[in-house]
Amino acid sequence: MAVALDTWSGWRALSRRDERPLPPDATDGELLVRVGQRDCEAFELLYHRYVRPVLGLALRRLRDRQRAEDAAQETFAAVWRSAANYRPERGPAAPWLYAVARNAMIDRLRARAETPSDAPDLASTEPSPADHADPSFVAWRVHRALEELPDREREVIELAYWGELSQREVAEQLHLPLSTVKTRTRTALAQLAAIMDGELA
Amino acid sequence: MRRVPDFDELVGDSLPPDERERLQRMHDLLVLTGPPPQLSPRTEAGPTLLMRLGRSRRQLRRGAALLAAAVATLLLAFLGGFIAGHRGGNERAVGQLIRLAGTREAPTALAALWIAPSGSAGNWPMQLFERGLPQLPQGGLYEVYLVRKGRLYASCGSFLVTSRARAVSVSLNAPYRPRRGDTWVVTREHAQRDGHDASTIVLHPTT
Questions:
Q1: Taking the CB of the first residue and of the last residue of chain B, which one, N or C, has fewer CB atoms within 10 A?
Q2: Do B39 and A70 touch (CB under 8 A)?
Q3: DSSP for residue A159
Q4: Complex ipTM > 0.85
Q5: Does A132 touch chain B (CB under 8 A)?
Q6: What is the pLDDT of residues B85-125, one digit of tens each?
């Protein structure tokens, strides 16, 4: 009898229900449905799309790097556990994921207060109207939208907004003509606006 | 004070008014929200096996405490059964305890593997109690193998270690009929450069 030493890939193969290949432009909702079917590849993709928004939210709420990283880990564990409950017809994935993350942060805050923290992971997965106006939710959407940008466009946005460089300095930094930097910046802003308008279906 | 980029410098003055207004809103949101956080190497690396098990580290710690209590109960039951079995001369009916020691790969590690009596369906439940194995890099795991005729014959299950100082207790099962001379080892499973996994024995029987 042969021994299967390729344990992890064997587990991956067993865990996959939907055998169709993941399209590179799969929406968050499609990924979440696949995660609900225990698709590791979809989970990995979703993780990389959302790890910065999740960690950003955790840092704002918990104000402690280590606790925030732990909360981010718990968020993704909760996503893995609960993805099968996601119903695409009830709304896009981004607010659902935000609600899961928010509940993980609440759980963390309760743990810090040393009160029992056995609250269900998903007290509510429907963001309230107040959530939509919450600066944390706005930041969540902006950071998620940034993940959609091609690298070369995200780069000019990051340098201009958070690198505190002028357009001329960005051009020098990237060894690009100033006109190219300006075009990329404008295109990036337009793309971000389109993504935010589309609410990340 | 943070320098806010000049919107007019960013987009120029050739845009239609409605498009300009749309981009101005996006500009304001970027200024308002600030940069996304930098990821630590651990977070950057991607999802962990623990997440895919749907478990947080805190839940795992809670679970480990419960498991430790369960193992203590099991060992007490085993001890009682062992004594009763010796009195009655029926060793096979009460299972078997195998002590494992670390190889050169993990010289300070120790483990005890309790093999329960085989059930009528042919399942062979077992309980591993381990201490001293190091935590593995992301994606790595430990595996308990049945060894038959000197070769790794079949996996009985895998486990993770979160800290060298923290004892781990896991329930495993081997759906195989025991044979004379069978024994068990613990291996470290790790990916090689060519993408294949390799097994290295880290715990082996002391007798």
A1: N
A2: no
A3: H
A4: no
A5: no
A6: 554 444 445 567 888 888 888 888 888 888 877 665 677 78
